[in-house]
Amino acid sequence: MARGLNKVMVIGHLGHDPGMRFTASGRPVAAFSVVTSRRWTDNDGERQEETEWFHVVAWGGLAELCKKRLHKGSRVYVEGRLQTRCWEGPDGQRFFRTELVAQEMVFLDNFEETVELGEEPEPAYDNEELLPAY
């Protein structure tokens, strides 16, 4: 099978403080949203702006750093991969969410500090590890 590439790089601001919880096995996981904007001038000379929100998930030590260092409005560079989760609600309705699974971050407030996930394996989601919607 041919090798593929799934890599995303985003620079933006946090939309809310990171939420952190622990899986049944005790592994920390943090979730937060990052907003990006782009501006351009259209063919009529009008200024345009487009906003995009990304749901970010960080695992292990990176999750703990996010909870400690980030807050609503923080500016951050996030690098990782896209992953789409599917789960069923209590009424049987299916939900889907595409998330940016963080593998590296640079905290852009005050000073730059790069944090890499390193060799920690990323777990597959199971029913006990589903993150609540935010």
Notes on the protein architecture:
- By secondary structure, the chain is mainly β.
- The protein has one domain: OB fold (Dihydrolipoamide Acetyltransferase, E2P) (Beta Barrel).
- Helices cover 7% and strands 52% of the residues.
- The chain has a 5-stranded mixed barrel.
- It starts with 7 loop residues before the first strand and ends in an 18-residue tail after the last strand.
- The C terminus is likely disordered.
CATH topology: OB fold (Dihydrolipoamide Acetyltransferase, E2P)
Strand coverage percent: over 45%
The count of DSSP E runs of length 2 or more, i.e. the number of strands, is 7
Largest sheet: 5 strands, mixed, barrel
Structural class: mainly beta
Work out the helicity level. Answer: under 10%
Kindly report the name of the CATH homologous superfamily: Nucleic acid-binding proteins
As laid out across the biggest beta sheet, the strand order is 1-3-4-6-5
Number of helices: 1
Q: What's the pLDDT, averaged over the residues? A: 86
Q: Just give the CATH class.
A: Mainly Beta
CATH architecture: Beta Barrel
Features:
1 helix, OB fold (Dihydrolipoamide Acetyltransferase, E2P), five-stranded mixed barrel, single chain, 52% strand, 134 residues, mainly beta
Task: Indicate the topology.
Elements: E1 8-14, E2 19-22, E3 28-41, E4 47-59, H1 60-69, E5 75-88, E6 94-107, E7 113-116
Parallel strand pairs: 4-6
Antiparallel strand pairs: 1-3, 1-5, 2-3, 3-4, 5-6, 6-7
